[in-house]
């Protein structure tokens, strides 16, 4: 009986899966190796975050500590002020990302669909922003922010973050909006809808994959930024997550293991966001493919 | 449609509210606020802890003073420092390095406030420790610690392998070869940072010539690097050290933590580093066996041809503080500086907490509870017959610092011969003179 059951199960599987040719075995093998290489840095990060400072940089790549140092995470949370910095990071990021998306969609719409004077000049000027390196703007921005009295506030981060992510966002969105047939918008106008209708009910849903690309791009730039935050902020009150790592940096040696714990905690939100949005991207692209 | 409009308006309103809230913070409280810019971001360990401890005490004693600390690590610190100076908006009190490459431009352009030497008569600063903080005979800053290079070593590794602790340079070479033969890295070295190699080269120059001024004369181009026998001999010594695998494998790629841990994990017998590592003997991150066996000797002097002795030390006063000349609360900032640097504050706690060797007399604060390593380092410093001053890579312009660190790294990596290294040093020095 049992044998028969195994047999049928086996047959059933055979129907479902494709034949395991040597070529497919090699492909699987290569994919596994690539996957291991991709995930290794994360394993390494978590592994080192549970070790003692003195055990790091030894002859072994991974360390098996006698006693996992969960203490590192406690120190990271308390001395690294992670909850405080996390709140700041979330406030700054949510506002920068949403405004960047809003502005880049509306601006891209204005550049592709509307007819106005100096349109092309403005578009080129916006795109030129992509060529400006962040470091060249630190000093002039610092002086202007100080003059405006916003150098020590959330706004002192939000404004430059939007300014630096907007050009690329607008560029991506214009390309996408161009591919949307005008007839859809015309039908909205015939039905009595206005410009807000077009943007929020047509453009936004149709450009979802592009919007998500812009969100991810903006999020990672602003989430990981240190140099702008270090320059424009002086008070600890508004500092964002990347500062937490530096709270454990000594003049010569640093508390490396705790820094690894901090980095694990800092990487976690980006990782979660990527996992969630990654699915959306694939979905968006396939939906578009069927429609096209 | 209306909902979406509301959303846009809401977002913009939120942005404005945050702006206003941010603006109001500056107006809070009627206290005197002193802005303190520090290069010690870790406020819970080491010198950062001591700095914060003294700042907190000062605020407790002076209720009308509020001190706002902004702390960034070295590189971000220097970057932000440039931004501050360019906008002439330096914080009231800030950390400096008493080295020409960093502090001279700041003193000469008048960013630092002049201090009154009479205030510090009872502060017992070591002779010469404030030289790097003075310009044209005027004092602009105070040194917080004395840095000097020693050879840390692991007594157990020496005893187990029957190697004699080196007292002369030849014994050092013999010891290195003996450890190599046993498959143990003789010296842990962080070649990637390049400044330790610069310092080692200067140490070798001192030991070859017995002349502390020689390398500075070459930087001034009073003599040529390439034409001098002793500078050449030191370069050849350094090449020999690389050739006999004096340093651990791939030391060129090792950074500070990697080299320090290699020594702490008892995989390297020696470690050429500054006295600021006096905490090695009590670092709970390393094994008890290591903590009990770590000791230090002065870098040995040459026998025979070399004229320098082991008591001709590579030592300088690096870190310190200065006050901004354009500060609105200059008097208060100087008072705070004077409070922090009082011998019974900085010198006493720095020694007793084992976070640094002070730049002030500290014998009176010995408690008898010091680690063996601390005592040993103290002895080495007390035996010094001459000290060098600022490491040569920091002794000229910021550009010279970059150049000298690049060429020493290329030299240590075997990309340059001793002669080529000296010629490149001449070029860098000429560039710095212009």
Question: Can I get a quick summary?
Answer:
The complex is a heterodimer of chains A (292) and B (434). With 292 residues, chain A is mainly α.
Write the layout of secondary structure elements.
The complex is a heterodimer of chains A (292) and B (434).
Chain A lengths: L1 H15 L5 H28 L21 H8 L3 H32 L5 H10 L5 H15 L6 H24 L3 H9 L4 H12 L1 H17 L2 H6 L10 H4 L9 H36 L1
Helix pairs in contact in A: 2-13, 3-13, 4-7, 4-10, 7-10, 8-9, 10-13
Chain B lengths: L1 H24 L6 E7 L7 H16 L3 E7 L2 H13 L6 E5 L2 H9 L25 E2 L2 E2 L1 E3 L3 E8 H6 L8 H13 L3 E4 L6 H15 L4 H6 L9 H15 L12 H9 L3 E7 L13 H6 E4 L14 E2 L1 E2 L2 E5 L6 H12 L1 H10 L19 H12 L2 E2 L10 H15 L5 H16 L1
Parallel strand pairs in B: 1-2, 1-3, 8-9, 11-14
Antiparallel strand pairs in B: 3-13, 4-5, 6-13, 7-9, 7-10, 7-12
Protein architecture, described:
The complex is a heterodimer of chains A (292) and B (434). By secondary structure, chain A is an all-alpha fold. Chain A folds into two domains: 68 residues, no CATH class; 168 residues, MetI-like (MetI-like fold). In chain A, helix 2 packs antiparallel against helix 13, helix 8 runs antiparallel to helix 9 and helix 10 runs antiparallel to helix 13. Chain A is flat and about 70 Å long. Chain B has two domains: 160 residues, 3-Layer(aba) Sandwich (D-Maltodextrin-Binding Protein, domain 2); 217 residues, Periplasmic binding protein-like II (D-Maltodextrin-Binding Protein, domain 2, 3-Layer(aba) Sandwich), CATH 3.40.190.10. In chain B, 45% of the residues lie in helices and 14% in strands. Chain B contains 16 helices and 14 strands. In chain B, strand 4 and strand 5 form a beta hairpin. The longest helix of chain B is centred in the N-terminal third of the chain and has 24 residues. Classes of the chains: A mainly alpha (292), B alpha/beta (434). Chains A and B meet through helix 4, helix 6, helix 7, helix 9 and helix 11 of A and helix 1, helix 2, strand 2, helix 3 and helix 10 of B.
């Amino acid at each position: 009986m049992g044998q028969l059951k195994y047999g049928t199960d086996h047959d059933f599987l055979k129907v479902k899966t494709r034949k395991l040719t040597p070529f497919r075995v090699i492909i699987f093998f290569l994919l596994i190796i690539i996957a291991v290489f991709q995930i290794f840095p994360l394993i390494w990060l978590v592994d080192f975050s549970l070790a003692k400072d003195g055990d790091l940089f030894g002859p072994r790549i991974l360390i098996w500590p006698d006693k996992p140092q969960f203490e590192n995470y406690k120190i990271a949370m308390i001395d690294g002020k992670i909850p405080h910095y996390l709140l700041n990071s979330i406030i700054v990021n949510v506002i920068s990302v949403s405004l960047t998306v809003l502005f880049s969609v509306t601006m891209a719409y204005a550049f592709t669909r509307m007819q106005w004077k100096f349109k092309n000049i403005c578009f080129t000027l916006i795109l030129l922003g992509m060529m400006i390196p962040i470091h060249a703007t630190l000093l002039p921005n610092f002086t202007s922010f100080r003059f405006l009295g916003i150098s020590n506030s959330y706004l002192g981060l939000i404004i430059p973050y939007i300014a630096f992510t907007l050009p690329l966002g607008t560029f991506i969105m214009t390309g996408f909006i161009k591919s949307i047939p005008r007839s859809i918008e015309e039908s909205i106008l015939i039905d009595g809808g206005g410009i807000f209708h077009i943007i929020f009910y047509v453009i936004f849903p149709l450009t979802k994959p592009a919007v998500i690309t812009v969100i991810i791009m903006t999020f990672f730039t602003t989430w990981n930024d240190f140099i702008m935050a270090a320059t424009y902020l002086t008070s600890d009150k508004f500092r964002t997550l990347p500062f937490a790592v530096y709270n454990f940096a000594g003049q010569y040696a640093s508390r490396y293991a705790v820094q690894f714990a901090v980095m694990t905690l800092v990487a976690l939100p980006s990782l979660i966001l990527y996992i969630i949005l990654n699915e959306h991207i694939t979905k968006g692209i396939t939906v578009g493919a069927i429609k096209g | 449609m209306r909902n979406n409009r509301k959303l846009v308006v809401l977002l913009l309103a939120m942005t404005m509210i945050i702006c206003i809230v941010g603006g109001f913070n500056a107006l809070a409280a009627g206290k005197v606020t002193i802005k303190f810019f520090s290069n010690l971001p870790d406020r819970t360990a080491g010198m950062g802890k001591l700095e914060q401890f003294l700042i907190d005490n000062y605020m407790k004693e002076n209720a009308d003073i509020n001190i706002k600390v902004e702390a960034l690590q070295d590189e971000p610190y220097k970057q932000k420092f440039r931004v501050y100076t360019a906008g002439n908006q330096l914080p009231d009190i800030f950390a400096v390095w008493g080295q020409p490459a960093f502090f001279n431009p700041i003193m000469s352009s008048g960013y630092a406030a002049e201090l009154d030497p009479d205030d510090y008569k009872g502060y017992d600063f070591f002779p010469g420790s404030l030289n790097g903080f003075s310009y044209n005979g005027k004092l602009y800053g105070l040194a917080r610690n004395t840095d000097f290079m020693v050879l840390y070593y692991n007594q157990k590794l020496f005893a187990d392998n029957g190697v004699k602790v080196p007292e002369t340079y030849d014994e050092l070479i013999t010891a290195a070869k003996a450890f190599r033969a046993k498959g143990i890295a003789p010296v842990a070295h962080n070649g990637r940072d390049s400044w330790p190699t610069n310092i080692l080269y200067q140490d070798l120059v001192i030991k070859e010539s017995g002349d502390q001024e020689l390398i500075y004369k070459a930087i001034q181009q009073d003599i040529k690097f390439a034409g001098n026998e002793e500078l050449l001999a030191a370069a050849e010594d350094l090449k020999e050290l690389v050739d006999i695998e004096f340093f651990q494998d791939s030391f060129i790629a090792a950074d500070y933590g990697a080299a320090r841990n290699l020594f702490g994990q008892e995989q390297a017998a020696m470690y050429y580093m500054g006295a600021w590592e006096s905490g090695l003997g009590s670092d709970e991150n390393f094994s008890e066996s290591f903590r009990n066996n770590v000791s230090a000797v002065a870098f040995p002097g040459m026998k025979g041809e070399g004229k320098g002795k082991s008591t001709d030390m590579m030592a300088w006063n690096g870190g310190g503080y200065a006050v901004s000349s354009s500060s609105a609360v200059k008097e208060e900032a100087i008072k705070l500086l004077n409070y922090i640097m009082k011998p019974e504050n900085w010198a006493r706690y720095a020694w007793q907490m084992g976070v640094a060797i002070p730049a002030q007399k500290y014998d009176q604060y010995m408690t008898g509870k010091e680690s063996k390593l601390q005592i040993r380092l103290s002895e080495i410093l007390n035996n010094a017959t001459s000290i060098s001053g600022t490491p040569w890579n920091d002794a000229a312009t910021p550009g010279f610092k970059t150049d000298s660190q690049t060429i020493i790294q290329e030299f240590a990596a075997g990309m340059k011969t001793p002669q080529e290294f000296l010629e490149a040093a001449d070029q860098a020095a000429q560039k710095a003179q212009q």
